[in-house]
Automatic annotation (TrEMBL):
<feature type="domain" description="Nitroreductase">
    <location>
        <begin position="86"/>
        <end position="255"/>
    </location>
</feature>
<dbReference type="InterPro" id="IPR050627">
    <property type="entry name" value="Nitroreductase/BluB"/>
</dbReference>
<keyword id="KW-0285">Flavoprotein</keyword>
<dbReference type="InterPro" id="IPR029479">
    <property type="entry name" value="Nitroreductase"/>
</dbReference>
<dbReference type="GO" id="GO:0016491">
    <property type="term" value="F:oxidoreductase activity"/>
</dbReference>
<keyword id="KW-0560">Oxidoreductase</keyword>
<dbReference type="Pfam" id="PF00881">
    <property type="entry name" value="Nitroreductase"/>
</dbReference>
<protein>
    <submittedName>
        <fullName>Nitroreductase family protein</fullName>
    </submittedName>
</protein>
<dbReference type="InterPro" id="IPR000415">
    <property type="entry name" value="Nitroreductase-like"/>
</dbReference>
<keyword id="KW-0288">FMN</keyword>
Amino acid sequence: MLMRIPNYSKSHSIEFAMAGCGFCNAADSFGSAARFALRPYAGCMVNQTSTQPSRRHDHPFVPYAPPRLDQTEGILRGETFHEFLETRRSVRFFAPDPVPRRMIELAVAAANTAPSGAHHQPWKFVAVADPAVKHRIRVAAEEEERINYEGGRLPEAWRAALAPLETNSDKSYLDVVPWIVAVFAEKSTPQPDGSLRKNYYVNESVGIACGMFIAALHSMGLATLTHTPNPMGFLSEILGRPGSERPYILFPVGYPAPDCEVPDLSRKPLRAALEFYPE
């Protein structure tokens, strides 16, 4: 499948191939709706008259004039993208098959385009492939999760909400996956002069970046899980992170196991997620 993405910093577009993405039988279960080849921009654009901005700025600004799609084409792409994302599922049964480092780099590069408070980009993605380090993370995560699930730290209502997912303290997949990506939120960012720059809207910013990371993994045929062992302080210790960062989320990354299963769930319908006001 070819998808043409505009490169706004240059006068041309770049093409890249999107891997067929499925969860239990690779491309076979990806679904025909998501097997698409987006048409090139040529012929589906709306002509726009370029104007020279008259506004003045106290800081550097550059022109931003992305191609404007014909609305019919835009709706088609929106529908196709939604159908593609509908094939994404959180996975707890992974194959040990290797995943190229380049795929991790590309997923983080996509996440790094996320909007953030004051454009401070308060995130750090730490990718781990070393089996010994992954095992240390598993042992520490399971220790905390045993307290949560078996030691009573999780409230009963929370445990009841998790019951349909059949989650428990077993995190053996952390030893199986080729990669673990730990995301840290930077409460403040060290500067070259040794000072700390305060960051703003940290949780919101990192959350958006993580969502884009998940979508990027899915576009390459990879699966992941949003794992949030609580508390997560052990990640800072194991991965040697500075005090200006705090653990935010843990992503096991890999291909689904051949016998992968996921809970039989449905998503909130659009009418329950969206309201137009006033009608």
